[in-house]
């Protein structure tokens, strides 16, 4: 049911997430929504969390996974235009932001997931920069996440955005020694 909900959210926004539509798409009956999720609001929260994971996981994996910062930047330079060109992913991002603005419980669930993603990124930064205090690692994680969000937004609006140049500039800033 969650996967069906994510697909419906990408196709038609929050208005498309009705109990009947989700049940029909998933091949289940509407009673199961109440049984498993306590009702449609509970299922919507799980759909939002799954959609956010689908959108965010590749970026967190890129930032938290590789030991080579240059490889991380190369991977991000690939992911950003790909995400911007993925209409379903863009619609999910827009709907998640809109939904979180309207539903405090949904916002709280997504906030927790984003905090966890930033914590994973901060932990990776701490391993790369063991001399940095924890607060600086958390701050760098916030900046990295915000930079990705901003670049994806700009790439959606401007498909000719020079993402590779931005990645190269960031590489120069990160590797510069004082």
TrEMBL record:
<dbReference type="Pfam" id="PF13977">
    <property type="entry name" value="TetR_C_6"/>
</dbReference>
<keyword id="KW-0804">Transcription</keyword>
<feature type="domain" description="HTH tetR-type">
    <location>
        <begin position="1"/>
        <end position="55"/>
    </location>
</feature>
<keyword id="KW-0238">DNA-binding</keyword>
<dbReference type="InterPro" id="IPR036271">
    <property type="entry name" value="Tet_transcr_reg_TetR-rel_C_sf"/>
</dbReference>
<protein>
    <submittedName>
        <fullName>AcrR family transcriptional regulator</fullName>
    </submittedName>
</protein>
<dbReference type="Pfam" id="PF00440">
    <property type="entry name" value="TetR_N"/>
</dbReference>
<feature type="DNA-binding region" description="H-T-H motif">
    <location>
        <begin position="18"/>
        <end position="37"/>
    </location>
</feature>
<dbReference type="InterPro" id="IPR001647">
    <property type="entry name" value="HTH_TetR"/>
</dbReference>
<dbReference type="InterPro" id="IPR009057">
    <property type="entry name" value="Homeodomain-like_sf"/>
</dbReference>
<dbReference type="GO" id="GO:0003677">
    <property type="term" value="F:DNA binding"/>
</dbReference>
<keyword id="KW-0805">Transcription regulation</keyword>
<keyword id="KW-0678">Repressor</keyword>
<dbReference type="InterPro" id="IPR039538">
    <property type="entry name" value="BetI_C"/>
</dbReference>
